[in-house]
Model the fold of this input.
Amino acid sequence: MGKAALIFLLFSMKIAAQQKSNDSVEPYLLSDKGSSRATAYIDSNKIAETENYIFVTYLDFENEEYLLKIKRFDKLNNIWSKSITIDKVKDNHGGGAIVVDSKGYLHIVYGPHVGPFYYRSSKKSGQIEFWDERIPVGDNMTYPSLVVSKNDKLYLLGRHSISKGPWGLYLFTKEIGKQWSDGKELVRSNYIFWEEFYTPDNPKNLFVKNGYTRWNKSIALADDGTIHITFKNYEFLPRNLNLEFTDKRNGGSYLISHIFSIDGGKTWYSGNKLLTIPAYPKDLGLISGSLNSESVKANHGISNVTLKNGRIPYLIFSKEETINSELFLAFFDHGKWQTTPIVNTGDENITYYCPASISFDDNGKLWVATTSIEKDKYNREGLWGEEQKHSFISIFRINQENKIDSIVIPKIPKPTWLPAISHFSGLPKLIFTHGESTSNETKVCYIELGQNSW
Done:
């Protein structure tokens, strides 16, 4: 393709994006060496902020190595720092979760795809150049979720894997000056219960090789100290349970749930029910879906959890059906979850699905960055992973009627995906990945949302 043709193609793509939205924004390029999962996953906070600085972390790929990077934006001088490599990681699942404590020190957990998490903290407040030695946390872990309390206690949530056994959701904690706690298993997959599908005349019915589960979990701390954890439950089902919502691996996500603790993690509830830990899916209160996987029609996706006014949990979830996907808003009110469809008042040719990333701004407005696709390109088998290639990021606010305000599509060609919005006060910030999901030559893009976005 000639240079003139290439310029015309890019210009046409930008115009098409503008026509499908009420406005559009020009992203800032953080890196052009992004990995195939540069800003993954919604489990992990990718942006931290203080009064003077914004910090972003992402995963680059250089010289055949996956490198955990961080950059700092100086608000006073309106300038980005150079990128700093924190560590080399195992593969494209090794990205980090980052928080900043009350004194401005950074804390990051990263590294494994079934292995120990690694934890590091910055040596100086507000600085990214120098870090303490890494400390291993847990074993056979993947997907870190990290939050910090007002008294600088760290809470780390991750998925634990075990060969030929149930996979679990583990919580670790660390207080100032102390070591990380041993992991506490909160929830387990259904693996041991699938044995009932085994029959001596057809042993292949038990197709499940292990307790593989994908939670897409996230964690938030309310102002009163309540720990909120939300997650979906994706797992492999037995061969003879080939249901409407399952994928080509015979796996699917048939429920969205929430557990919480009001005593620092000693006891846990789901809905009004006190849980015996570790809990199984059958023990959980549901936001959406069913405990009976055979009655579910749509695969479920989920966003991170965020807190309105520092106390009320909100999330977004999707029901991905065979030919379309619907997006829903959910919030926890007086001990019960309320859900409502998010009405698309923009381009009706666009359908939304998760992963999505959400955050409230200082004015109490909920911002959503969700994965999108044109309806004629919709294919439930191609919404995620290596087959994903038609997706793009849509950004919008939810108004008082739970409808979409203005839709913003970043000025960048498709595909764009893996949104990670800041879970902090002020104007929300967003990073996302631009490029094919099979490529280790993606771009990492940054947008500050707010008045300048509209």
Notes: The chain is about 5% helix and 45% strand. The helical segments are 3-19.
